Amino acid sequence: MRLPLIALLLLLACALAAPWLAPGDPLAGSADALLAPLSPGHLLGTDDLGRDIWAMLIHGSRVSLAVGLAASVCSLAIGVLAGAAAGWLGGWADAVVMRIAEFFQTLPRFVLALIVIAIAGPGIGKVILVIAVLAWPQTARVVRAEIAALRGAAFVDAARLGGMPAPVIVLREVLPQIAGPVLVLAALDVATAILLEAGLGFFGLGDPNLASWGAMLNEAQQYLRSAWWMSVFPGLAIGLTVLVFNALGDTAAAA
């Protein structure tokens, strides 16, 4: 758990310190086009427009982490609310929520995100909303199963006898008991959201006014042989960031 957590803290620190680590506009071009890594003033080289790869990489981390964390929080809120209602109420409420969850789970997540963003237009808020709406069913199913299993537990019966309202019982007594599995899913949702955001950026559906790892890969396609650094560094950034969140989820699940 310690190594993935340290890596996550380093990622967050780099994202927060981006204006100091790479001051200026990361999308501003220059005459220094296609400089190789370790060139004077350009640690990781430049792209075809003379933009610094290091600056775009650092500022792009803010976009990827913001989208991943925000989408995960939103999907977590929807999933916990829907799963808690289904697991606690049971009956028709359970049936309705689970049928809706199954419908969303059958949808091809990335293809639907492509269609929605292509129609609605690019924007970080839209990307976060689409990812959150498509990611909540798994959390809802896990929360529903856990709450249904705990609904008849002794501590829940004691809370009922004490006159505690049902929403308070769920919030204060039941949800803390299932925090572990929910946090594992949240970490995995962040990784999935980062991949989806990078994929949308790769297809040119990210915000053109922001540096994005996916957009960097999009622009690097025609320079795969002549300027390998344009694709290698953003690709490594995506892979390592997703690996960190997956490792956090795995170690939390094993704990």
Please characterize this protein's 3D structure.
This protein is an all-alpha fold and 255 residues long. The chain has helices spanning 2-16, 18-21, 53-89, 91-106, 109-120, 124-150, 154-161, 166-174, 179-202, 213-220, 229-254. Helix 1 crosses helix 11, helix 5 runs antiparallel to helix 6 and helix 6 (124-150) runs antiparallel to helix 9 (179-202). The longest helix is centred in the N-terminal third of the chain and has 37 residues, at 53-89. It is elongated and about 75 Å long. The model has no long low-confidence stretch (mean pLDDT 89).
Quick summary:
The protein is an all-alpha fold and 255 residues long.
Topology:
Layout: H1 2-16, H2 18-21, H3 53-89, H4 91-106, H5 109-120, H6 124-150, H7 154-161, H8 166-174, H9 179-202, H10 213-220, H11 229-254
Helix pairs in contact: 1-3, 1-11, 3-4, 3-6, 3-9, 4-6, 5-6, 6-9, 7-8, 9-10, 9-11, 10-11
Features:
about 260 residues, mainly alpha, 11 helices
DSSP helical segment count: 11
- What is the makeup of the main sheet? none
Give the H and E element order.
Answer: HHHHHHHHHHH
Spatial gap, N to C terminus: 9 Å
According to DSSP, the number of beta strands is 0
> Pairing-aware structural class of the strands and helices?
mainly alpha
How is the quaternary structure best described?
A: single chain
- Return the average pLDDT rounded to an integer: 89
Report helical residue fraction: over 70%
Radius of gyration: 22 Å
User: What percentage of amino acids are in beta strands?
Assistant: under 5%
Shape: elongated
Low-confidence stretches: none
